Every structure is written in structure tokens, then in C-alpha cells.
């Protein structure tokens, strides 16, 4: 994907638009390249291999997805009512849920603590990622925060002939604040604590990501998933690795019934992910993708420095 980046450097953003590139790809690459914020985020490697749904499911519906090494089972939580049966809340989904999860994990590693403050801090961070906080955006963030706090997940992990099960809530505790009097809705998280199991897995297997990259594709859940996946996979390869369309569809396209519907959407989002991961060496072949060893988006020394600056602003 280096060509579009080279073109922007040579001709500028406006000049690159006159060449045979999709405008969205050029705009995304240009936004990423112009972003001088060198912030780093962190995500548990399990999410890079098996992610949340892209669209809303029925509130009582579970979510299951598989990759070559990981299966994720995500079960919705329920909210107690004063009368009648408890209400299903539904599993988290879409780009907002991914950004909130990224915030929780980044803050936990940055502060070396399971205890995380949300409220104003989360709003500020979402604003920093280019998400306007107010109206529908605030309602969406509040809804996804509650879904994350109430759901339960199981990562079934298989590697080297061994199988394991990580069965946990994402959060152990959460404090909900009644915001009805402000006209902003009924529930919003102010504080949260990551579950001990999830926190320990995160510390052992973090995937560092560039905030500038996340910011440039913040409204596109599949592009975010692909960026995280490539950030996790490419730098550990010792030789080219082929991934078939069947495997790609199982991991990224469970909402599609036919491969010919999935491929155009996948490729559109792949090019967006590559627009914010300049060093990614990926080629599209007739049978799928070929992944080649590539430098990670965040240099190892930079990642270590970020995790050591505990509690720094």
C-alpha cells in the first residue's frame, strides 16, 4: 500500500486525488499521515483474532466467531427491573464499542491498574479520536458502555496442539450514574474495574496500536478489526502466509451468506486498514490474501516506553 503514501508525499493530498485511487483511500491515508499525535493504544490479542459483531443483534442473542486459533463466545447480560422479568441488554457491537474497549485496555496498562475512571475521561478520549460527544454519539457511547459492562465472554484458544478456555466478564464492577435529570439518558458508566482474568491476559498479550491510525478509521468497525488483526499478525511472521477467502469470511464476514457479497466489502475495508498501516506487506490473490513479514505499526521500544510511563498524563 506504499504507493498511495508515496504519491501523497510527492504530489500532496490534492494532487494524489487526480490519480487512479479511490478518494476514500486517499483521504484516509492523508489524514493519517498528517496526524502528528504519536499516542499509543493497547488491545488484548484475542480481540485482534475474534472481534465483536459489526451490527446490532437481537438483545437476547449470543455472538460466536472463529479464527484459526481463537473462538469467541459473547453472551449478553441482563438488567434487573422493579417489576417483571429482567431485560436483556444485548452484546456490544460496532465501532463505538471497539473504541470504548480500546480505551479501557489502554488506560489499564497506562496506569498499571484494573480501576479505570470513565465519565469525563472517556468523553475526552472519544473526542480526541474524532468522535463528537453529544446527542446521538453520547447515547451510543452510553449504550455500548452498558453492554460491555454486563456481557460475558469466553475465548477458546488453541495453539501448538493445546487448547485453553478463558471464561470471564470484561468488567468485575461498574458504577452507573442516573443522568435522566440532565436530559442525557438514564445510565452511564463513571467508574469500572477490569476483571482480574481479563486484565492478566491483557498484560501478557497486548497489541500496540497507533491512535492516529484508529482516529482515521474510527467510524468503520471492519477496518478497525483488520487494522488490529494485521498489527497482531504481520510482525511475527517469519515467511509469507496465505489466508483463504473461506477463512477470511469466517473471521470477518459472518454476516454475509455468499462470498461474492463479502469480498468487495472486505477489500474496501482492507484498503482503508492498509492506508493507516504503511509498512503492512499484504497482497490480494485469487485464493485470498498473502501476508508477509512486516514492521509493526508501533516500534517495540516505543511500545515498552508507553507501558512504563505509568500514570503519566
List the helices and strands and how they pair.
Blueprint: H1 2-16, H2 23-34, E1 40-44, H3 45-49, E2 63-66, E3 70-75, E4 78-79, E5 87-88, H4 94-111, E6 115-117, H5 120-128, H6 136-150, E7 152-159, E8 162-169, E9 171-178, E10 187-194, H7 196-204, E11 206-210, H8 211-216, H9 221-233, E12 241-244, H10 245-252, H11 259-275, E13 281-285, E14 288-292, H12 300-308
Antiparallel strand pairs: 1-11, 2-3, 3-7, 4-5, 6-10, 7-8, 9-10, 12-14, 13-14
Helix pairs in contact: 1-2, 2-11, 4-6, 9-11, 10-11
Question: Would you mind describing this structure in some detail?
Answer:
This protein is α+β, with helices and mostly antiparallel strands and 313 residues long. 43% of the residues lie in helices and 23% in strands. It contains 12 helices and 14 strands. The strands form 5 sheets. It has a 4-stranded antiparallel β-sheet with strand order 2-3-7-8, covered by helices on one side. Strands 6-10-9 form a 3-stranded antiparallel β-sheet. The chain has a 3-stranded antiparallel β-sheet with strand order 12-14-13. A hairpin with a 3-residue loop joins strand 2 (63-66) and strand 3. Helix 2 (23-34) runs parallel beside helix 11 and helix 9 crosses helix 11. The protein is globular and about 65 Å long. Residues 180-186 and 309-313 have low confidence and may be disordered.
